[in-house]
Amino acid sequence: MPRPSERALRDELLRISALCYERHLLVALDGNLSVRLSDELILCTQAGCHKGMLTGDQLVVIDLDGKKVRGLGEPTSEMAMHLACYAERPDIEAVVHAHPPTCIAFTVAGVSMARCVLPEVVLTLGAVPTLAYETTGTELLAQKVGEGIRANDAVMMDRHGAVCVGSSLLDAFCKLETMEHMAKIMKAARDLGGITDLPAEESVKLRSLGLKRYGGPPEAVAKADDPHADLPPACIECSGCGQPSHTGLMASANFSVARITNTPVRSFEVTRVEAEVRRAILETLGG
Hints:
- The protein is an alpha+beta fold.
- Helix content is 41%, strand content 12%.
- The longest helix has 24 residues, at 169-192.
C-alpha cells in the first residue's frame, strides 16, 4: 500500500500530537513523534515544542542518519531513539514517545507491567516490558529502545516514558493509549486488593490468536505457534502471591496483616452479649 502524501502525514502528525496532549499522555515540551515520508526520509517534531500547540513549521525532515534535510529549528534531541526503532524494524511507519503518568508511576514504584491481565491487551500488545534506566537522550538509551522494539510494539523506559511503534501514527498512538488505560486499571485493581492474572493457558491462546490476526513484530509473529508464544515467564508461571513481578515475589512489605478466612463474621450484637455473659460468670466465680 502506498504511503500517504507528505501533506497528509504532516496533518496527521499535528493531530496525533494534539491528541497525546489532550489525553494527558504528555505535558509541556515532553515527548516526540515521527513518521516515515519515504524509505530514506523521516518527518519528526522539532526540539523544544509544545505538542498540544504544535504547528506545521515545527516539523523537520531528516534522513536515516539523523541529518536535517529541511525545516526550521532542529529535530528532537531524542531522535536517535526513533532512528533505532526504524533501523530495527523496517516494517514500522511511525514512532510515538510520550510520558503516560500511570505507566511511569509503575516504573518508579518498581512494579512490572509485563503481565497478562486484560485480554484485549494480550491480543494486541502481549506483555509490555520495562527497560532498565539510562540517561535520557543518550545513544545507550537509544540502543536499548531499539533492542526492546525488535520484539515488542510498545516498551516502557524506567522513570522516563513509553515508546510505541506502528503501521501509522494513529496505530502507534492507539498502543500508547491502551498502555495507559491498562496501567490505570491495574493500579485500581491493586488499590482494591490485588491484580489477578489471566490463566497461563488463556494468555497463550489469546496471544497466539492476536499475533496471527493482528500481526506484530516479525520476531514475535514467528513465535505464534510456540508453546508460550512470545509471552514472558510472568504470564506463564504463577509466583504464588497473586501480584508477581518480573523477578518473582514482590519485596517484603515489612508489616503484618490480619489473616483472612471464609468464616462468617458474627454481628456486633452477638459478640457484645457473649462478653456480658462471660463477665457475669467471672463475677460469680470471683464472689
